[in-house]
Amino acid sequence: MSMVNKKNTNKIFITLIFLFIFSNNIKAEIIIYSPNKTYYKQAAELFLKKVKEQLKNEEIKILYNGFNEFNKNYFIVSLGGEYTQKVIKSNSNKIFFFMTADTTLFDLIERKKNSNYKIKIGGIFYIPEIEERIKIIKNIFNNKYTIAILYSDSSKIYSQKIYKIAQKYNIKTILVKTNRKNFLINMEKAFNAGNILWMIPDSNIYDQLSIKLTIINAVKRGIPVITFSPAFIESGAFMSYEIDNNRYIIEATKIFLDCYQKNICKIKFSKNFKIIINKNLAKFWNVKIKNSENIILKE
What is the 3-state secondary structure (H, E, C) of 199-260? Predict the structure, then answer.
């Protein structure tokens, strides 16, 4: 091969490398990591459908079988708290999450942001907006009540967020720090401190046993429990919420596109929810519930 041909070949090779790197920096491949459970798979597939309606030319994949090595140029989308916490530890430049209600993830993200974390994170929790819930609570109960919240080191920031918004509406709120080891002692402290208990979805505090114990003991004391799953209404919780999955995915798609296309990455809570009230307990405690399209009475 002549010297001229070698030079030309080298120029072409360098140009191809430059174009490859440059194109990767502009247009990242989107990879969706989802737990291999029907609940998450349905959400991932609906999200993919909605996103493809807007991003027709991008390559988007769903992976259900764990994690491959991350390329920092990938735009990673994750479902569920466990997957999202793993993704945050990756070297991806941008991350979006949805379909998780674990408040420990909220605290993790806030701590990362406060430590000059350079990776862009956007997402929407499977939890209703706090302020909207507080407005409903204020309308249902009279002013002579105190909300007690059990929290751990991993949900401190989220619980403080509730506290600050409650103060805005002149609602007295007591935060009681706990952990699994001292849960029963601190549960009693919370019952003594407040006459409403707000359970937050903190996986470091609550498991099936502690949830059951909390609700049973609260009902015995006549303390309404605000919980994070409508399934707990049947166990004796007073209030929960229900999120419409289809509308939630529409919310998630919009927030994702803002992050992917406009580089506006925000952490949000769902605006699409209905409050579920235990009808029997409301009647027993003589709590009057006004008719509202956003409230469902459940026996």
Answer: CCCCCCCCCHHHHHHHHHHHHHHCCCEECCCHHHHCCCCCEEEECCHHHHHHHHHHHHHHHH
> pTM, whole model, 2 decimals?
0.84
Q: Are 215 and 235 in contact (CB under 8 A)?
A: yes
For residues 132 and 255, give the distance between their C-alpha atoms in angstroms, rounded to a whole number.
19
Say how far apart CA 275 and CA 296 lie, in whole Å. 6
Q: How far apart are CA 162 and CA 106, in angstroms?
A: 13
**Which domains does the chain carry?**
3-127+245-270 (3.40.50.2300), 130-242+274-298 (3.40.50.2300)
CA-closest candidate to residue 55, choices 21, 29, 34: 29
- Per-residue pLDDT of the chain in tens (299 residues, 90 and over written 9): 444 344 444 443 333 333 333 333 434 489 999 998 999 999 999 999 999 999 988 889 898 876 665 666 789 999 998 888 888 877 677 899 999 999 999 999 998 877 777 778 999 999 999 999 999 999 888 767 899 999 999 999 999 999 999 999 999 999 999 999 999 999 999 999 999 999 999 999 999 999 999 999 999 999 999 999 999 999 999 999 999 999 999 999 999 999 999 999 999 999 999 999 999 999 998 888 888 888 999 98
Find all residues with CB under 8 Å of 240, minimum gap 6, and list them: 226, 227, 228, 229, 230, 232, 233, 275, 276
Strand (E) positions, the chain?
30-33, 60-63, 75-79, 94-98, 120-128, 146-151, 172-177, 196-198, 225-226, 239-242, 267-270, 274-278, 295-298
Cβ atoms 107, 258 nearer than 8 A? no
Q: What angle do CA 233, 252, 38 make, to 5 degrees?
A: 60
Across the strands, what pairs with 258?
none
